[in-house]
Amino acid sequence: MTETVDEHATRVFADHRELLFSVVYNMLGSVADTEDVLQETWLSWVARHRGRTDEIEHPRAYLVRIAVNQTLARRAVISRRRETYVGTWLPEPLVTDPPAGHGGEDAAAPALRAESVSMAMLVVLETLTPLERAVFVLHEVFGYPHTDIAEILGRSATATRPLAHRAREHVHARRPRCQVDPGVQRRVTEQFLTAQMDGDLAGLLALLATDVTFWSDGGGKQRAALRPVHGRDKVARLITSQVVLSHVPDFGVGYRFVNGDPSALILSAGAPFAVLVLDIDPSTARIKGIYAVANPDKLTRIDT
């Protein structure tokens, strides 16, 4: 049976949806905004098919170009929204079960372990300009050559190369490409939660790097520090005195993969209360970054 124009467009879009989601999410750090961009991309794609009879020779490239430019257009809306955001903004976590065939402490699939989508990397990417981030994601994460990136962005390859160089230097200076063993990640996360629950200041100090930073995102709807807190002593005191878990009703914890890293899903009466992601130095197994997302708007897509 011959496909209709809409059926063909739907099938091709579905074949590329996972790629499009990854590209857009890495550029925005928000699942909700990514879904909106994909909807706009889909509508543009369908309109293109309905309006013309000739076949698109390279649908993947065409769809990526639409999605990237829709994403760049959306950055202005997101920037205005951030101006009124209460406290520190963190990326919306992608929470998944352990990859098939892996236990919670085993190595994750390379795709899920990709540092490009880690919470720590996404925080660094937020410091780039929208164009720098687009070029970095397309080139460093997805391997697009500069000629293709130039075509996607409607610029020359000569103009995109300096963007790529600045973005790469900026990111690598703040986020060296190294990852901790998933088993170590899980063990340190468990030790951290135990010390926090027990109010064990000495135990926390032993786990934290000297220059550790604590980020918490409550969006003005949950208790959270309004600004990042730096330094081992300050972070440990804050965690044991103010940001405690003992006040969470019917507290529970599950260990899930968050943006590819073994992390903790904090539950209250069986519902998501917060996501905790630790950034661990692989050479020392000490915690150099703590990311706590408690804004309920960013937890609605998590299945428990």
List descriptors.
single chain, 304 residues, alpha+beta, 7-stranded mixed sheet, 7 strands, 50% helix
Structure description:
The structure is a single chain. This protein is an alpha+beta fold. It is 50% helix and 15% strand. It is built from eleven helices and seven strands. It has a seven-stranded mixed sheet with strand order 1-4-5-6-7-2-3. A hairpin with a 2-residue loop joins strand 4 and strand 5. Helix 2 packs across helix 3 and helix 3 crosses helix 7. The longest helix is centred in the N-terminal third of the chain and has 24 residues. It is globular and about 70 Å long. About 5% of the residues have low confidence.
Structural class: alpha+beta
Q: How many helical elements?
A: 11
Largest sheet, spatial ordering of strands: 1-4-5-6-7-2-3
Oligomerization category of the chains in this entry? single chain
As a whole number of angstroms, the C-alpha radius of gyration is: 21 Å
Shape assignment: globular
Compute the number of strand runs.
7
Mean pLDDT: 87
Q: What share of residues is helical? A: 40-55%
Topology:
Layout: H1 5-28, H2 31-51, H3 59-82, E1 95-96, H4 110-113, H5 119-125, H6 130-141, H7 146-153, H8 157-174, H9 182-198, H10 201-207, E2 208-217, E3 229-230, H11 232-241, E4 251-258, E5 261-268, E6 271-280, E7 287-293
Parallel strand pairs: 2-7
Antiparallel strand pairs: 1-4, 2-3, 4-5, 5-6, 6-7
Helix pairs in contact: 1-2, 1-3, 2-3, 3-7, 6-8, 7-8, 9-10
What would you say about this model in short?
The chain has 304 residues and is α+β, with helices and mostly antiparallel strands. Helix content is 50%, strand content 15%.
